[in-house]
């Protein structure tokens, strides 16, 4: 059976069991002091019944609260364990999570960006861990979510070392106001852990840690890089129109000529 208390202890989290043990010890000390007090009280001025009852009620309330905390901890640990089990499906797979910090590995860092509206200008700055801009990219603005793969080179074409890099994107409108930009990063999950402070399940992508709640998808292995779709669309339209027109004209001419010739010959006979 899954021991949720073991999960709590292994993750360095406190347990209500410790509080219960402390309460039992304190309650025993209280009873010892109470009986000693009763044995040595002044017969002419005995302990008031109200005071005695209030102290017992206070201990009972504390004990009840600790029992409730114990049940809550069990539910939290069980939920955390279920989340961790569900997150095992991410191990070894490439995920996409909301965030602006990604991992450069083997000359590649994948990220996605989307703007609230179509900007008139767009600039992407990639910063190293020291906060220095190593690469500036000015792609063609589009209104659709765009996947981009940074090749790990700086503005001078020099390969940068593997590690964490931050993506900063500035999008401007026609009237020179800044547009909201949303970013997500991709990477292969290498580990799973639980946050000691929040109890949330965290996924490790190399040296990067992301909250499992920020995962928005699992990549299927197909990398979509940024392309200028306008050129592709024009080329495809022109090719399709020319091909269709030529084919249709040739087919119609040949068909009409052949049909007319055959009909005329048969009528003369």
Which structural traits does this protein have?
13 strands; 2 domains; Immunoglobulin-like; five-stranded antiparallel beta sheet; single chain; 269 residues; alpha+beta
Oligomerization: single chain
Largest sheet: 5 strands, antiparallel
Spell the H/E element sequence. HHHEEEEEEEEEEEEEH
CATH architecture of the largest domain: Sandwich
Strand content: 25-35%
As residue ranges, the low-confidence spans are: 1-14, 222-269
* Alpha carbon gyration radius: 36 Å
Q: Give me the side-by-side strand order of the main sheet.
A: 6-3-9-1-13
Q: Return the average pLDDT rounded to an integer.
A: 74
- Note the overall shape: elongated
Main CATH class of the largest domain: Mainly Beta
Count of discrete alpha- or pi-helical segments spanning 4 or more residues: 4
Backbone structural class: alpha+beta
End-to-end C-alpha gap? 97 Å
Count of separate structural domains: 2
Percent in helix: 40-55%
Q: How many beta strands in the DSSP annotation?
A: 13
Kindly identify the CATH topology of the largest domain: Immunoglobulin-like
